[in-house]
Write a structure and sequence with these properties.
Elements lengths: L18 E6 L64 E2 L4 H5 L2 H10 L2 E5 L5 E5 L2 H8 L4 E2 L16 H4 L7 H11 L5 H29 L1 E3 H6 L1 H11 L3 H15 L6 H22 L5 H10 L6 H14 L2 H16 L1 H9 L4 H12 L9 E2 L1 E5 L2 E3 L5 E3 L1 H4 L34 H18 L4 E2 L21 E3 L8
Parallel strand pairs: 2-3, 4-10
Antiparallel strand pairs: 1-8, 3-4, 5-7, 6-12, 8-9, 11-12
């Protein structure tokens, strides 16, 4: 949608020098040896906002550092508690959290800026709860995303090497090399070329939703609209048939929220085998798509390994569908909960870009950024974290931090400060940010225009949520409408 751009903070906030390195730990393993080709053109991909970075001090030293208090004076009179002792472990991820995580985050922020938590699988991690420290940690070079840096604790999904060598698990040098290889599919110019396809697909799935509503009186908006729409877009980029995309989407959902023991491992195995078959087929008959160009970069130029090739295909399919699907459904639910903003967007559709930014802050399904591992013992906000421990950056908690956002629990499409961390920050800023924004805006705009009387078909308390600490996402979104508008 025209006018959707990355908005930066008006000014950098004064942040504490809160992250201090103490003792290094060597990495185990090296990346694929390859040179990035020269990049840069007028058609360059959307990049991370060039916001002045907060001051973050990292001082490796052979001597232990003395723990000091956070040098920043607490804003609005809130006094930070002393760092929690090692035995003070929190267990926040219960049934109440899965239904509504935000009251839990409010309690955690009050308890401290960095807390040791037990995850549902029994593993331990350090959770960063406040926006200032989450933002600083995003760009700290001593916090690695490479699992080889992990000594113990939660490591994320247990993936085979052929799925694990993706951008979410790779540190700067190899990350930039791989990022350049896929960037052509996500330039602003290319995204705009996809707009007509997204508009057409949204109209098609709105027709299908209207048919289901006419036949049954209710329909699942996730199944009929939110799930298939992003599959069309990423399917076009990678030339993946829609039926394959639907199967892939089911496997990813099983990874995040398995219904039975063994579902996660089975889903990962199915994804792995499917991608190997897809690449084998495309290698034999290449086309004019992003996957074919990645295969050529592997086979002709040796610019990425075979594991990196498969892993990139995995990440593109997963990231290009999962989050957008749940932002469409969660975004619509948020608007239905706030009818005054729903009415405003219907009368002033030009405000949709601002609504999308607020939805990214307020209702993004991702609760955490990708886990990180200190390459040296660090202090974050006065809490010492050993090298190799797992650090989780609490995105959802940061986005409801009252020291960062005025009235953060209020959904407000007129919010003046639209900056957020939902699409990442620094090196790991989302490559497909402009595409995601466009898809969400078109999808919600289509629903609001086509269905003026759209409403929930069940009481809100009956909505079912995914049982996952990683992702706050609906399993279904039953909707009804009194009189669907005829197709235009």
């Amino acid at each position: 949608m025209a006018g959707l751009e990355v908005k930066t903070q008006a000014a950098a906030r004064g942040l504490p020098s809160a992250i201090i390195a103490v003792d290094p730990v060597p990495a185990s393993g090296t990346g694929h040896a390859g040179r990035a080709h020269a990049g840069g053109s007028a058609d360059s991909p959307t990049t991370a906002p060039q916001t002045p970075e907060p001051v973050t001090v990292n001082r490796p030293t052979t001597e232990p550092t003395q723990r000091t208090a956070d040098p920043e004076r607490p804003r609005r009179g809130r006094q930070d508690p002393a760092p929690a002792p090692a035995a003070d472990v929190h267990r926040p991820f219960d049934a109440g959290f899965f239904r509504d995580p935000y009251p839990v985050y409010a309690r955690l922020r009050t308890s401290g800026p960095v807390l040791k938590v037990v995850l549902p699988d029994g593993s331990h991690a350090w959770l960063v709860t406040r926006e200032e420290h989450v933002r600083a940690a995003f760009t700290d070079p001593l916090l690695s995303v490479n699992k080889a840096r992990s000594r113990n604790g939660y490591q994320g999904f247990s993936l085979p090497p052929a799925l694990d060598a993706n951008l979410l698990n790779i540190d700067p040098d190899d990350h930039l090399r791989l990022r350049r290889l896929v960037s052509r599919g996500f330039t602003p110019r290319h995204v705009e070329r996809l707009r007509d396809r997204v508009v057409t697909a949204a109209a098609h799935y709105a027709d299908r939703l209207a048919e289901r509503l006419a036949e049954h009186g209710t329909a699942d908006l996730l199944a009929e609209f939110a799930n298939p729409l992003p599959l069309v877009v990423i399917g076009q980029l990678l030339d993946v048939p829609e039926a394959d995309g639907r199967a892939f989407s089911r496997w990813v959902a099983a990874m995040h929220a398995p219904a039975h023991p063994g579902d996660t491992a089975d889903a990962i195995d199915r994804i792995h085998r499917y991608l190997l078959d897809l690449i084998r087929t495309r290698r034999a008959a290449p086309g004019d798509d992003l996957l074919s160009s990645l295969i050529a970069a592997r086979d002709a130029d040796d610019r990425l390994s075979e594991d990196e090739l498969v892993s990139l295909a995995f990440l593109l399919l997963m990231a290009g569908t999962e989050n957008v699907q749940h932002l469409i459904s969660g975004g619509l639910l948020t608007l239905l909960r706030h009818p005054e903003h729903l009415a405003t967007l219907r009368s002033r559709p030009e405000l949709m870009p601002d609504a999308v930014e607020e939805l990214l802050r307020y209702a993004h399904p991702n609760q955490m950024a990708i886990r990180r591992f200190p390459t040296a013992a660090v202090e974050i906000a006065g809490v010492r974290i050993p090298a190799g421990d797992t650090v989780l950056l609490g995105l959802a908690s940061a986005h409801r931090d009252p020291d960062r956002y005025p009235e953060p629990e209020v959904f407000d499409i007129h919010r003046a400060d639209t900056s957020h961390l939902a699409l990442g920050h620094g090196l790991h800023y989302c490559l497909g940010a402009s595409l995601a924004r466009m898809e969400i805006g078109v999808a919600l705009g289509t629903l609001l225009e086509r269905f003026p009387d759209l409403r929930l078909a069940v009481p809100e308390r009956e909505l079912e949520w995914r049982q996952s600490f990683r992702s706050h996402a609906l399993r279904q979104l039953p909707v009804a409408v009194s009189a669907p508008a005829p197709a235009g």
